[in-house]
Amino acid sequence: MNEYLVILYYHYTKLNELETFRDIHQEFCDRHNLLGRIYVASEGINGTLSGLKDDVLAYMEYLKNDQRFEEIVFKVDEADKHAFKKMHVRVKNELVNLSLETDINPKKLTGEYVEARDFYLRMQDPHTIVLDARNDYEHQIGHFRGAIRPNIRNFRELPDWIKENESLLKDKKILTYCTGGIRCEKLSGWLKAEGYNDVGQLKGGIITYGKDEVAQGQLWDGQCYVFDERLKVNINRVESVVVGRDHFDGTPCERQINCANPECNKQILVSQENEDKYLGGCSIECSRHPRNRYVALHKLTSKEIEKRIKY
User: FRET partner for 192 with CA separation of 20 to 30 A, picked from 46, 109, 183, 281?
Assistant: First the structure.
């Protein structure tokens, strides 16, 4: 029986006295044994946390009782344990970092909200471009079929990538999507500010799409990367397609790790066998790195290291 809940949420609203808000919020979460990450900024709140059902429900009610958050929407999953190890509430300049010279206020400018069932239909229009607003390591484990994969490692790189690849989007109908919806709020607004007129965003993000009784996650291949200890969740309830490929041998794989070189930390898909074979590194340089975490964890000798590295 699943006794825990994991929630994902955000809400754009004006917040003042951020440090005081943070401290009060942290105290409430600690008192209710909640774990997770919450970011607050003058433009609103963005969070994900886990806890026993009664404690999470109390938190949701606590937020909704604040007039500033009465319209907040929570994405809720059941779980058999906590999805985080710690709890922190932090003040940030932006809820999501798009690093624009002129910031976008989603309350004033954003793309059309597209419900899951309509998103499913619109994706099949040959004149529509589906743009993944997430990072490369999120895309590699799962994505909408036929979606454009920007070659970026951070969200803030996306505007420059779009400018460099304008020909892909020009005069097209554009649909954007991300995990919970928050990144698309600003991205779709920025696209409209840049002169793209027909811009829609998946309302509620991938997580909501997977729960919709009409869409049922269809046309989603692979799994959805999430920012907690679960690492990934199922989306497509009609068929299962593995799109991830092992970093080394290209075989189907959905097992994700961080490169064992702490200075690299690249997220890769790799089987347990290949992680062991290549000492958790994504390259020979990372396998041989003097601070390789895999080597330290398994207390490998220099002789054992050389025996394994054959590439």
Answer: 46
Residue spans per domain, the chain: 4-91, 112-233, 256-308
**CATH code, residues 4-91:** 3.30.70.100
Confidence at 310, pLDDT banded by 50, 70, 90: low
φ, ψ of residue 20 to 5 degrees: the values are -65, -45
CA distance to 25, 211, 238, 289, per residue, from 277 (Å): 45, 38, 36, 15
Q: Which residues are catalytic?
A: 178
What is the structure's pLDDT at 311? 58
**Averaged pLDDT for residues 168-186:** 95
SS (H, E, C) 103-141: CCCCCCCCCEEECHHHHHHHCCCCCEEEEECCCHHHHCC
Are 184 and 178 a contacting pair, CB within 8 Å?
Answer: yes
Nearest-CA neighbor of 140 among 256, 219, 272, 275? 256
pLDDT single digits (tens) 66-102: 999 999 999 999 999 999 999 999 999 999 988 888 8
Amino acid in position 9: Y
Sign of CA dihedral 107, 90, 59, 7: positive
More reliable by pLDDT, 297 or 151:
297
Which CATH number, 3.40.50.300, 3.40.50.2300, 3.40.250.10, 3.40.50.150, labels domain 112-233? Answer: 3.40.250.10
Domains 4-91 and 112-233 share a fold: no
